[in-house]
Amino acid sequence: MPELPEVEALVGFLRERLIGRAVDRVDIGAISVLKTYDPPPTALNGLTVTAVERHGKFLDVDVDGVHLIFHLARAGWLRWYDAAPTAILKPGKSPIALRVRFTPVLDADPAGADGLDPDGEPGFDLTEAGTKKSLAVYVVRSPADVPGIARLGPDPLAAGFDQAALAAILADSRQQVKGLLRDQSVLAGVGNAYSDDVLHAAKLSPFAIAAKLDDEQVTRLYTALRDVLTGAIQAAAGKPAKELKDAKRAGMRVHGRTGQPCPVCGDVVREVSFADSSLQYCATCQTGGKVLADRRMSRLLK
Ligand SMILES: [Zn+2]
After folding, report:
1. How far does the centroid of ligand 1 lie from the alpha carbon of residue 23, in Å?
2. Half-sphere exposure of 227 toward its Cβ, with a 13 Å CA cutoff?
3. What is the spatial distance between Cα 169 and Cα 210, in angstroms, rounded to a whole number?
4. Which residues contact 48 (CB under 8 A, 6 or more apart)?
5. Which of 23, 25, 39, 40 is the most buried (most CB within 10 A)?
């Protein structure tokens, strides 16, 4: 699932290509992804993109006051075209949930003699692989009209998010720090993957209770949060949309690396179940050598 750094990179990618472009048409391939009905997607037609922003893991294309907002969730992705296919989408026949095409603009360095984009209309598809459908698209007049955005906690990379702000959040929570980090209503944008890597960089047990962290641990967590996320953003910046997933995977410290050596100490990266999925960690770096018990497993054995 794309998290804050990948969504931020997609924002940069789309900003470069879309601002100043007008929407030509929006085609819906899977009606179930569209979570709003007023304004209709046709309200975007003819309007010009004025901004592209991120809210947590949501991507917001501001089309002159009408916002096309989407959340890629677990299996959704964006496919960019310099020249989008002109064929009509057949609902239910492909993984393409939504296609947006933009009008050509005068090109500073035209390959076409007419001075337009040489190959047709640029655009993008939102696709979703597999059967677990959770890609969500919203057309709204204000981002706050999307419930998932209205609920978001502070963005960990926002200018005002200092160590005191994180300390206040932690002090207030009886949650395990792994769960806290990926709770979107507490912090916006961090998910299962980066929470593993942030905790590894901070040398903290994923099962530590937030309110019990001491000052030094809070400092480490704050530093790790900023460093891991900004490092991932730098690694992702400027990469085309299609390369972002591989870049994310390649940059991970422990997440998704069960059985491989820890990049810091060489101990084996271990996995333990957590909530609805699993997490990865290094016992030497994070838990004083203690192997975390798989609670799901021990429950089954009781
Ligand atoms: Zn280690």
Report:
1. 49
2. 13
3. 8
4. 20, 21, 22, 23, 63, 64
5. 23
- The CA distance from 242 to 56, in Å, is 21
The CA distance from 24 to 11, in Å, is 20
Burial (0-12, 13-18, 19+ Cβ within 10 Å), 35: middle
Instruction: Tell how far the Cα of 254 is from the centroid of ligand 1, in angstroms.
Output: 9
81 close to 240: Cβ distance less than 8 angstroms: no
207 CA to centre of ligand 1 in angstroms = 16
Query: Who contacts 238 (Cβ-Cβ below 8 Å, separation ≥6)?
Result: 9, 12
Pairing of strands 270-274, 277-281: antiparallel
The predicted-structure confidence for 185-205, as pLDDT tens digits, reads as follows 999 999 999 999 999 999 999
Tell me, in angstroms, the distance from the centre of ligand 1 to residue 269's CA: 7
Instruction: Specify the amino acid at residue 184.
Output: Q
pLDDT 10s digits, 134-153: 999 999 999 999 999 999 99
Q: 142: which residues sit within 8 A by CB, 6+ positions away?
A: 67
Could you tell me if 182 and 192 are in contact, meaning their C-beta atoms sit under 8 angstroms apart?
A: yes
Distance 281 CA to ligand 1 centre (A): 8
Enter the pTM of the model. Answer: 0.91
What is the spatial distance between Cα 267 and Cα 283, in angstroms, rounded to a whole number?
Answer: 8
